[in-house]
Amino acid sequence: MPASLPYLPPAPAPLHYLHQDAALLVVDKPAGLLTVPGRGPDKQDCLLTRVRADFPDAEIVHRLDMATSGLIVMARGKEMERCLSIAFQQRHVEKRYLALVAGQPSPEAGEIALPLIADWPNRPRQKVDFENGKPSLTHYTLLSHDAALDHSRVELRPYTGRSHQLRVHMMAIGHPILGDELYGDLGSRNAASRLLLHASELALPHPLTGATLRLGSEAPF
After folding, report:
1. What would you measure as the largest C-alpha separation in the chain, in angstroms?
2. 31 by DSSP, 3-state: which?
3. Which of 21, 65, 180, 185 is catalytic?
4. How far is CA 125 from the centre of its chain?
5. FRET partner for 55 with CA separation of 20 to 30 A, picked from 15, 92, 110, 151?
6. Where does residue 7 rank: exposed (0-12), middle (13-18), buried (19+ CB within 10 A)?
7. Cα dist. 16→36, 43, 77, 89, 179 in Å?
8. Catalytic residue at 180?
9. Under 8 Å CB-to-CB from 63, ≥6 apart: which residues?
10. What is the pLDDT of residue 71?
């Protein structure tokens, strides 16, 4: 979050838990809420703090950008955190996102393989860097196109988990996500009042049973 912008989290409200058991929680994060506390006393209200009010043993295993909404997995206790973190590191977790983007991607499906690194002078921005960037891979699929508005609904599947990966990759191929204050142009930034990116599907092996847990969340746009 740029330092110049005030942090205005959504008002406290009951969280939507899609799954809860002794090992893990899956919660639907609202847009505009940090996943974990930020720097400074004004950025302590976050998803983790709110979840711990319901489940004091909740632990973070992955994150979503503040502006992104959708599904987040949290572990119940340190041992489950270790198990789930390994599953994420070994890419045993499938994640799918829905987004509205400017223009119409062509071809209708493809892979974006562009290495990413932090743009330190312009933090928290990330950038494509072919010399020093970390390998990053996203698969996109065009779902529909609104010719009148020249916007497209796309499904995005990240195979790596770099910061801002989906946002930078879509911007890099000329189709920024609508409402993206960091990476959009003037037209795409003003096309929506929030970042139109939602973590809509999640599949992972349950750390206790090994059975695949699949969950979905409808995009609010």
Report:
1. 51
2. coil
3. 65
4. 15
5. 92
6. middle
7. 17, 22, 20, 26, 24
8. no
9. 35, 36, 72
10. 98
- Tokens describing residue 173: 């191929």
Residues shown for the chain? 221
What gap in Å lies between CA 60 and CA 131, rounded to an integer? 31
Q: What is the DSSP string of 185-208?
A: -HHHHTT-SS--EEEEEEEEE-TT
Distance of alpha carbon 29 from alpha carbon 32, whole angstroms: 9
Extract the tokens encoding 88.
Answer: 């994420």
pLDDT band at 4 (very low <50, low <70, confident <90, very high): low
Distances in Å between the alpha carbon of 60 and those of 47, 65, 72, 171? 10, 14, 9, 28
Between CA 175 and CA 181 the distance in angstroms is 14
Query: What integer pLDDT is reported at residue 6 of this predicted model?
Result: 85
- 126-143 burial, b at 16+ Cβ within 10 Å, e below that, comes to bbbeeeebeebbbbbebe
pLDDT (0 to 100) of residue 90: 93
Instruction: Kindly give, in sequence order, each residue whose CB lies less than 8 Å from that of residue 83, ignoring residues fewer than 6 positions away.
Output: 23, 75, 207
pLDDT at position 2 over 50: no
What pLDDT is stored for residue 66 in this prediction? 96
